Amino acid sequence: PTFGTVSPASVHPRQFQYTLDNDVLTLEQRKFYEDNGFLVIKNLISDADIQRFRDEFEKICRKEVKPPGITIMRDVNILKSEHTISEKVISKVQDFQEDEELFRYCTLPEILKYVECFTGPNIMAMHTMLINKPPDTGKKTSRHPLHQDLHYFPFRPSDRIVAAWTAMEHIDRNNGCLVVLPGTHKSSLKPHDYPQWEGGVNLMFHGIQDYEQENNRVHLVMEKGDTVFFHPLLVHGSGRNRTQGFRKAISCHYASANCHYIDVKGTTQEGIEKEVLKVADKFGLTEDVSLKDIWKFRARLVKGERINL
Ligand SMILES: O=C(O)CCC(=O)C(=O)O
After folding, report:
1. 6 inside domain
2. Domain hosting residue 208, numbered range
3. What cofactor(s) does the depicted protein rely on (predicted)?
4. For a Cys staple, 181 with which of 57, 188, 235, 271, CB 3.0–4.6 Å?
5. Is the distance from CB of 38 to CB of 222 less than 8 angstroms?
6. How many A from CA of 144 to the centre of ligand 1?
7. CA nearest neighbour of 225 among 181, 164, 144, 176
8. HSE of 30, CA atoms in CB hemisphere, 13 A
9. Is the pLDDT at 247 greater than 80, yes or no?
10. Residues 122-133, mean pLDDT to the nearest whole number
């Protein structure tokens, strides 16, 4: 017997889980993201914009501008050696939400148009980075171990979170391109820790300890301005920079403002919470600050309405 009408959704398995209905992605692009957990859009960001981000990064390195809240990171090995030119010692700047020039990247309409396909119309910029991968010193510390970004994030659901990562120059295996394990966004969050690398490992560069070696890796060769959007459970990392140049990319993680914070106590993310709070403590933040408070403070609305995050 049948009771009332049967909706097509209850007959067919849900076709799309990771993307929302939109008129931006072609069906082919949508299916590609659903199956693989990433999507490269060629030539999305103009040379002029990339030049502006590069100029601002250099100003930050020269300490001509000091945006509040920014985190400046160095490679473990370069940290130990002497360098006078400051752009050569900074491997990454994070949390540039207060820097008007760099934060423009997170608000570019050409980026948000794609982001909305994954997050929906209420969009928060949660995490910002400009990565300046230095020439490897021979200790292989310029590598970024394979990881899932969700390990760092105390908010869910994961399907409404997406990263945008833009190549600021030609990037291939020589200067350390992104490497992704297609389809791993369908797996769960794995335990992460510091890899046991002989040459040392950079602060917060956690990796997955037990990923399946046989998983096929895809090296994303990208041109200046190309942008990859990827799911926070997609296993990815980047290789050693074998050139003498500083490989640059700019990136923002977005989430739907409808996402909610979670308590990471008792989960595999407990360790990263402790580590982040320890760093915050060094900067004089009081003891009762939680991971959620830190994220809430940094998060910025870039489109629509600020709801939970
Ligand atoms: O740009 C890179 O080398 C990789 C960056 C990355 O995966 C990260 O910082 O989470």
Report:
1. no
2. 22-303
3. L-ascorbate; ATP; Fe cation
4. 235
5. no
6. 6
7. 164
8. 15
9. yes
10. 97
